[in-house]
């Protein structure tokens, strides 16, 4: 959720004409990441959770692309971009690790007699 808060802060100074454009897209993608993680955690299976984590990862990639665009058009500084992308990369590593863990086969329990 820290990344989402930081995105909201970073977009406060965007031009008002972007309120329904890039600002909205960035905020929606940023909120989608923890929202998908939370929704997936509430599911009853690891497989379902992994699907939602994959959706969160997709939103993360979307966010990274939009951040690059925001820097390219001069809405955020190179240093802000670097900081936000570093946060994003850390979240990406955590998502990838969790997805890998959930996709590993579970050891079989011995049959009880």
Description:
Helix 1 packs antiparallel against helix 2 (22-41) and helix 2 packs antiparallel against helix 3. This protein has helices at 2-11, 22-41, 46-72, 78-103. With 113 residues, the chain is an all-alpha fold. Helices cover 73% and strands 0% of the residues. It has a single domain (2-103), classed as 23S rRNA-intervening sequence (de novo design (two linked rop proteins)).
Count of extended strands? 0
Q: What percentage of the residues does DSSP assign to strands (E)?
A: under 5%
Order of SSEs, N→C? HHHH
Cα Rg: 17 Å
What are the low-pLDDT stretches, counting only 5+ consecutive residues below 50?
none
Features:
113 residues, 0% strand, single chain, elongated, de novo design (two linked rop proteins), mainly alpha
Write the topology of this structure.
Elements lengths: L1 H10 L10 H20 L4 H27 L5 H26 L10
Structure in a nutshell:
The protein is mainly alpha-helical. The protein contains 4 helices and no strands. Helix 1 packs antiparallel against helix 2, helix 1 runs antiparallel to helix 4 and helix 2 packs antiparallel against helix 3.
């Amino acid at each position: 959720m820290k990344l989402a808060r930081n995105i909201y802060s970073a977009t406060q100074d965007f031009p008002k004409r972007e309120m329904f454009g890039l600002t909205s897209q960035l905020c929606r993608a940023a909120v989608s990441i923890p929202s998908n993680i939370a929704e997936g955690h509430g599911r009853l299976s690891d497989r379902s959770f992994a699907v939602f984590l994959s959706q969160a990862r997709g939103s993360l990639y979307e966010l990274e692309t939009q951040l690059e665009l925001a820097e390219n058009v001069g809405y955020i500084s190179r240093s802000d971009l670097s900081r936000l992308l570093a946060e994003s990369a850390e979240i990406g590593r955590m998502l990838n690790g969790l997805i890998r863990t959930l996709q590993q086969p579970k050891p079989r329990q011995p049959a009880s007699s």
